[in-house]
Amino acid sequence: MWLAMALFALTMSISPGPVNLISFSIASSHGFKRAFYFVSGATIGFTLLLAVIGLGATQLQSTLPVAIRYMGYAGTAFIIWMGFKVMTADPSLKTDAGHAPNFLHGFLLQWLNPKAWIACISGVSAFNLSSSYGRLVIFVGLYFVICYISMVLWAWAGKQVRALIHDEAMILRVNRIMGGLLILIAAYLAISF
């Protein structure tokens, strides 16, 4: 069961999504250290969301579909806003860390991210975690480590792209591509719920 939990966490954490694309974008625009703050917030936010859903899954059964729909709308709007911010980011080669998404942005994004809610609800349901707090604690712990590593890998990839970028026009193109992908993901998420 632990291997199945780890593979589930890896599949959901490493696949492209809003948080991973933003981690990549921050590292490519502002450096790995700045992305690490965002990654830390996103990892802690996600695992806290997972624990809350796991602890309250049985009480949320009747209100969950409505809550997910509204969270989906709020999350989609937030992801579109983040995509717009990435697309319009200053392509200057000088980094201004004050304008990069930070720990709090990462934390909040997970609570507004429809992919995070789907991953949490799917994991709690698939492994029947609402009936076993011991398994829930292990799953949250596994997910924390795997999620952190996965997002760090996305940030590391962004850092590698940053090393290849030598002019502002190239940074602008990367920002527009990453921001556009975020907006497309948000649109896909909006039509899927």
From TrEMBL:
Localisation: Cell membrane
User: Which Pfam families does this entry report, sorted A to Z?
Assistant: LysE
Q: Which GO terms describe its cellular component?
A: plasma membrane
Question: Can you provide one Gene Ontology molecular function annotated for this UniProt record?
Answer: amino acid transmembrane transporter activity
Q: Which UniProt keywords apply?
A: Cell membrane, Membrane, Transmembrane, Transmembrane helix
Regions that span the bilayer: 37-58, 70-88, 108-129, 136-157, 169-191
- Membrane topology reported for the UniProt record: Multi-pass membrane protein
PANTHER family tied to this protein = ARGININE EXPORTER PROTEIN ARGO, ARGININE EXPORTER PROTEIN ARGO-RELATED
Protein name (record): Putative threonine efflux protein
Q: What is the scientific name of the source organism? A: Gynuella sunshinyii YC6258
**Organism phylogeny:** Bacteria, Pseudomonadati, Pseudomonadota, Gammaproteobacteria, Oceanospirillales
